[in-house]
Specification:
Layout: H1 2-20, E1 22-29, E2 32-39, E3 44-48, H2 55-60, H3 64-68, E4 73-77, H4 96-108, E5 114-119, H5 121-132, E6 137-143, H6 153-160, H7 171-178, H8 186-191, E7 196-201, H9 205-217, E8 223-226, H10 238-249
Parallel strand pairs: 3-4, 3-5, 5-6, 6-7, 7-8
Antiparallel strand pairs: 1-2, 2-4
Length: 252
C-alpha cells in the first residue's frame, strides 16, 4: 500500500513538473521574428511585457509565469524591439503592429480566444487589442496602466517626447514614439464589452496619469491598488500575483 502511494505521488509530481516545462520558439510576424515561450497546460493566457523589458524579466523573474502555469497554458512573447525578438526600425513598425503581433501569434498557435494580461506598455497593447479585436479576448488585465487617450497631452508626449538621451533613430525611440498609435478614444473605451481588471501600485505615477481618468468613464471595471508598490516593483508583490490570479479565474 505504501509503495503504491509513493508511486502515485511520484507520478503526480512528474506530471506537474512536465506541465510546467517551458517550450521556446520563434515565428514570423509579417517579416519580423517574434520569440515566445509556452509554459503549462490549460486555457491560454497571453502575457505582454512592458517597455525596455522582456517576457523573462517581466513575468518569469517575479515568478508570475510559474504561478499561472499551475492552472493555464501561459504564452509569453518578447515584443518586437525587445528580448530575443526582431528589432525593426521605423516608428510605423511599432504601436499597432505590436497588437498585430499578438493576433498573429494566436493564429500561429491556433488559439481562437484567450485571456490577455499586459503590464505598462503591454497594458496599452492589451487595451488596443480589446478595442480592435474583442472577439479574440475573453478577459483582460491591465497592470500598471489604464487609458492612453487619443489626442491627449499624454498621447502627444509618447509621440514627440520622452526619449531624451537616446538616439532618435534607435529601436527604443521608434518603439516609444510608435506607442502613441496605441491611444484609444473615449467612445472606444465605453464600447468595450470584454471584462477588464486594472492592477496598479499605490505609488505608481501611472495611477494618476492613466488609471484615474479611466475610472471616470469605466467605473464598472475593478481597480485593485497594490500596497507599497511603485511602477517597477508592483509585479514583485504577492498581492499583485493573487489579484491577477483572481481576475483570470473570474468568469467572463
Amino acid at each position: 500500500m505504501k509503495l503504491n502511494l509513493l508511486l502515485a505521488i511520484g507520478a503526480a509530481v512528474i506530471l506537474t513538473v512536465a506541465a510546467r516545462e517551458t517550450r521556446a520558439d520563434d515565428f514570423d510576424s509579417a517579416g519580423v521574428k517574434i520569440h515566445y515561450t509556452v509554459t503549462g497546460q490549460g486555457d491560454p493566457v497571453i502575457l505582454i511585457h512592458g517597455l525596455s523589458s522582456s517576457a523573462a524579466m517581466n513575468w518569469d523573474l517575479p515568478g508570475i509565469t510559474a504561478e499561472l502555469a499551475r492552472h493555464y497554458q501561459v504564452i509569453a512573447p518578447d515584443c518586437r524591439g525587445h528580448g530575443l525578438s526582431g528589432k525593426p526600425t521605423g516608428e510605423d513598425q511599432y504601436g499597432v503592429e505590436m497588437v498585430n503581433d499578438v493576433i498573429r501569434l494566436m493564429d500561429h498557435l491556433h488559439i481562437a480566444k484567450a485571456r490577455v494580461v499586459g503590464y505598462s506598455l503591454g497594458g496599452m497593447i492589451v487595451m488596443k487589442l480589446v478595442v480592435h479585436h474583442p472577439d479574440r479576448v475573453s478577459s483582460a488585465v491591465l497592470g500598471g496602466m489604464g487609458w492612453l487617450k487619443t489626442n491627449s497631452p499624454l498621447d502627444r508626449f509618447w509621440a514627440v517626447a520622452g526619449t531624451r538621451g537616446h538616439d532618435r533613430d534607435s529601436v527604443l525611440a521608434d518603439c516609444f514614439h510608435g506607442a502613441a498609435n496605441l491611444a484609444v478614444t473615449e467612445d472606444e473605451v465605453k464600447a468595450v464589452k470584454t471584462p477588464v481588471t486594472i492592477l496598479v501600485g499605490d505609488h505608481d505615477p501611472c495611477r494618476r496619469l492613466y488609471v484615474e481618468p479611466l475610472r471616470t468613464i469605466r467605473p464598472d471595471w475593478p481597480v485593485h491598488i497594490i500596497a507599497d508598490a511603485g511602477h517597477i516593483t508592483c509585479i514583485t508583490k504577492p498581492e499583485f500575483k493573487s489579484k491577477l490570479a483572481a481576475a483570470l479565474a473570474a468568469k467572463p
